[in-house]
Automatic annotation (TrEMBL):
This is L,D-transpeptidase. The keyword ATP-binding does not apply. The active site is at H127, C140. Residues 55-164 form the L,D-TPase catalytic domain. Keywords: Cell shape, Cell wall biogenesis/degradation, Peptidoglycan synthesis, Signal, Transferase. The keyword Cell membrane does not apply. InterPro entries: LD-transpeptidase, LD_TPept_cat_dom, Transpep_catalytic_dom, UCP029342. Pathway: Cell wall biogenesis; peptidoglycan biosynthesis. It comes from the Bacteria. Residues 1-27 form the signal peptide. Pfam families: YkuD. Belongs to the YkuD family.
Amino acid sequence: MNRRTFGLAFPLALLASAAPLSLKVRAAVKVDKNAEQLSNGEFNWFPERSPDGPILIIVSVPDQLVHVYRNGIRIAASTCSTGKPGHSTPTGVFKILQKDKHHRSSTYNNAPMPNMNRLTWSGVALHAGNLPGYPASHGCVRLPLAFSELLFGVTKVGMTVVIADEESQPSEVVHPGMVLGDYARREFAAVDGAVKAYQYSQGHTENPTSTSVVVSGKDRSMTIWENGEIVATGPVDVASPDRPLGDHVYTLTKVNGEDGELTWVATGFSARWEGDTDTQVIRRIKAAPQIKRELERRMHQGMTLVTTDDAAGTTTTAVDFTVMTGFF
């Protein structure tokens, strides 16, 4: 079944493999190689290339590689092992729901899952595990132990993880309008204020807000999710409606108050896209005034905007936001 479904808490019944950590994992090697040159169990780590800013993780299932980007710059990459046949790792857009450094499986004989970053409550996660050199898990993304420790140190609950059926190279998109459409310059203060308020709150609260926005070309609608729940919906206009929007993921990385521009890091998560570019797609979307105001006051660096040509409706209420390409 290839219909994409927006929503939360799909009955995937996927959990990490019970295989114990192997010597390959414990002997994982940090190397000075490009991602494309990594051998099984190897990883690289160059945080100095982009010291701060929103992080985006992309898992390439065909390549069995994990890429870590900060502000659109790749700062790390690692080999991995995803789901084996019959237990495929679901592709799509996920939020980190929970972090547990010493997690153990509640399904597979209390098997250790060190440095666990949970992506769904039904069992999909990033964690250290056995890497045989091919897909072998029950749906999770296994990582070399040393890499998983470094990754655990930089991830945050609510950040975005894209699991893709190809390597999706992020690109930078600068949107000349404020938020999905034309605007008066005076309105930019609302966005700038929201971003600054969020940045302040990050240092004063244990529960950061996670915001995701879904734009459906089929429904001509925008849905805003906050901490896993729908907080606003409204109509959008799509220029050239006969052309598909495609599956795109945008992560807000910068707000330029001087120019009144937003900078996004964009990527895809499904089959190779040959339609409009990321920049062309976002410029085709114009939100109605009411929903645009709801979005303005929730803007923050690291928030995610997803476009799709499928319907965006859902009746589920759980808290693992995903954009799925199928059921497994």
